[in-house]
Specification:
By secondary structure, the protein is α+β, with helices and mostly antiparallel strands. It has one domain (4-129). The protein has four helices and five strands; from the N terminus they run ααββββααβ. The chain has helices at residues 11-19, 24-27, 80-98, 103-115; strands at 31-35, 40-44, 51-55, 74-78, 128-129. α3 crosses α4. It is globular, with a radius of gyration of 15 Å. The mean pLDDT is 92.
């Protein structure tokens, strides 16, 4: 892992990048989470059920060569169902990464959390906007791969 400072962004820039993942009609009333030194923090409380966040590289597959890449900035806006299903996973992984846990420890903790029902099952109706033109997903690809 690179030093934590390399994963952090200026707060307003992170809010703007998170909002850029979805149309303004969605992101303007969404909750916005920003990365702090120990976890994601709520920067803006929304009212439409969507949650916009800029994911970091450790949300990639555990065997991804990008797993520790401090340049990765994956802007997403999750609908209510996706937020309830996925944000707790993002929060647990991020908390463990920032506390210095290994990939193996994170995998074990995720398995245990799902087995013990500490993490929710994935809900049907999940939908995520990933339409930011400013996101950075991979060193190997010269595009953001916008999609929903």
């Amino acid at each position: 892992m690179a030093p934590v400072d390399q994963y952090l962004m200026e707060r307003n820039a992170e809010i703007l990048l998170a909002r850029s993942a979805a149309p303004d009609s969605v992101s303007s009333d969404a909750t916005i989470l920003v990365l702090g030194r120990q976890r994601y923090e709520t920067a803006v409380r929304g009212k439409n059920g969507f949650v916009c966040i800029v994911e970091r590289s450790w949300m990639a597959a555990f065997d991804s060569p990008e797993y520790w890449n401090p340049k990765v900035r994956g802007a997403e806006c999750l609908n209510r169902q996706a937020a309830r299903s996925f944000v707790p996973i993002v929060e647990l992984r991020t908390k463990m990464v920032l506390a210095g846990h290994s990939k193996g420890e994170i995998i074990s903790a995720l398995k245990a959390a799902f087995a013990n029902k500490q993490l929710p099952d994935l809900e049907s109706g999940n939908m995520v906007f990933m339409m930011s033109k400013s996101a950075y997903l991979y060193d190997a690809v010269d595009q953001t791969m916008d999609h929903m």
